[in-house]
Amino acid sequence: MAFVNERLTSLQKENFEKRGIKNPQSSNRILSPNFWTIDHERNACLINIGAYHALPEEEYFVFIVDSKIFIFTLQMCNINDTTKAWKFKKFKSLNNADEIDEKQLMTIFKEALSEYKYNGLPDEYKQQFKMEIDF
């Protein structure tokens, strides 16, 4: 199977919240997404958690592969009026995932981001821009 953009059902949201993953933007809150980009067979999902006020040009994503949790920092850049690009800034492990093949992680992350596109909404929602990945 491949990555797909989905709106979480109430049950999926409840089950996700039971995992107790802290929201990196607010350490006293649990991550509670409404949408995700997920590959159910590979147990991998991408969740946009937004931008910090101090750096609004940077977008933060939580990327979970099996039980390994990462935070990726990307920057969205304008290419032209109809196209934008994601540029890689950095990533770090949120749960000390020491044994990770970084090349494989980046490959899977790019697959997820390719499906996420501009806003991560399911196909029934209109994607506003064509997206490129520039890393």
What does this entry look like structurally?
The chain has 2 helices and 9 strands. It has 135 residues and is of the alpha+beta class. It has one domain (4-133). A 7-stranded mixed beta sheet has the order 1-4-5-6-7-8-9, with helices on one face. It has a two-stranded antiparallel sheet with strand order 2-3. Strand 6 (55-65) and strand 7 form a beta hairpin. It is globular. The chain starts with a strand and ends with a strand.
In short:
This protein has helices at residues 10-18, 102-116, and strands spanning 4-7, 22-23, 26-30, 35-39, 44-52, 55-65, 68-78, 83-93, 130-133. The chain has 135 residues and is of the alpha+beta class. It has one domain (4-133).
Which key terms come to mind for this protein?
globular; single chain; alpha+beta; 46% strand; 2 helices; 135 residues; 7-stranded mixed beta sheet
User: What is the H/E string?
Assistant: EHEEEEEEEHE
The shape is globular
Q: How many domain units?
A: 1
Record the strand order, biggest sheet.
1-4-5-6-7-8-9
Percent of residues in beta strands? over 45%
Number of E strands: 9
Low-confidence stretches: none
Rounded to the nearest angstrom, the distance between the terminal CA atoms is 24 Å
Briefly note the structural class of the backbone.
alpha+beta
Topology (elements, then pairings):
Layout: E1 4-7, H1 10-18, E2 22-23, E3 26-30, E4 35-39, E5 44-52, E6 55-65, E7 68-78, E8 83-93, H2 102-116, E9 130-133
Parallel strand pairs: 8-9
Antiparallel strand pairs: 1-4, 2-3, 4-5, 5-6, 6-7, 7-8
